[in-house]
Task: structure prediction
Amino acid sequence: MGDPIHQFQLKHFFTLGHIGPYEIVFTNSSLFMLLALVLTAALMLIPTRRRSLVPSRAQSVAEISYEFVANTIRSTAGKEGMKFFPLVFTIFMFVLAVNLLGLLPYGFTVTSHIIVTVALALLVFFTVIIYGFWKNGLRFFKLFVPSGIPIYILPLIVFIEVLSFLSRPISHSVRLFANMLAGHITLKVFAGFIIMLGALGFPWAAGSVLPLLLVVALTALELLVAFLQAYVFAILTCIYLNDAIHPGH
Amino acid sequence: MSDGARHNGDHGNSPSEEAALSARLKRLGERLGRQTHRPVDKDASASTASDPSAMARGFRLSTELVAGVLVGAALGWLLDRWLGISPWGLIVFLLLGFAAGVLNVMRAAGVNTGSYRPPD
Result:
């Protein structure tokens, strides 16, 4: 107790094998990713095995999450964006499940490690590049050459546009990572205040009610953040995919 | 909800019952369709309407700016190392990165950038 960073430490459970000089280790991070995968699959597969017109509780959760992501894609990337529904839905559900699992006591927040969010953001980034070139060919470069620009400042604008494009995976990944990291550290620090005040003895221990109230409020806020960041991650994925589908803005 | 015939009632379904059910479903669908018209054919490029809260927007805008500056600085530093033009690469690309960051923020905030980005 006391060290608010301790919760992000990776624990090696067992070694799966070696690829070159790298050891592939099953850690608590892998465990929680696997848990998120199993939970999401169960949420989607079990209620939809016995579909009914009047949905059961579990089925309506599955239906709501489908509708929610489908509407997000339709409103940001248009109808053609729906071919990326599996990607966006997987990313949304994975990030949401992982964020929520991290809020449980003794839970581990997978998205508080930047390597995970960068991997997800790069997946989207390369999907956009590969699909953009595959679908539009060289017209994909029109993304960097806005129309209606005088020729003498065009080179400058192209540089800025390219930098703006390259900065996407960074802002995409850092946002999720920083939100989860900061939120969990805040929670831990205020929970630590409860113990510290409680250890001071009779008159001061009554004060530990205040940080306790704050922790309750923060937990609710973190629940909101966990959902919101999964949503923001998914919606940004849609916006970036929109550029691959319709480049010449 | 698309196919009306699928329901797990355990009583026997006569064809007329099925027809009545599907007619009822169709009426319900029409009523629902009137109430919740979703923007199906809209290719919205602005993200502002879909951002759910002001806090998420704030986080988004700040990271956009920082990301632009960081990428500019990283590229400039790399160019300096490869081409041996220190410190000019860093200076120029840091400024370009700042401009890219501002552009990111303006896009994220849904600011209309004039004739520069016409709606498709």
User: Anything to note?
Assistant: The mean pLDDT of chain A is 88. Chain A touches chain B at residues 50-54, 71-72, 74-79, 146-149, 156, 159-161, 163-164, 166-168, 170-171, 174-175, 178-179, 228-229, 231-232, 235-236, 239, 242, 246, 248-249 (CB under 8 Å).
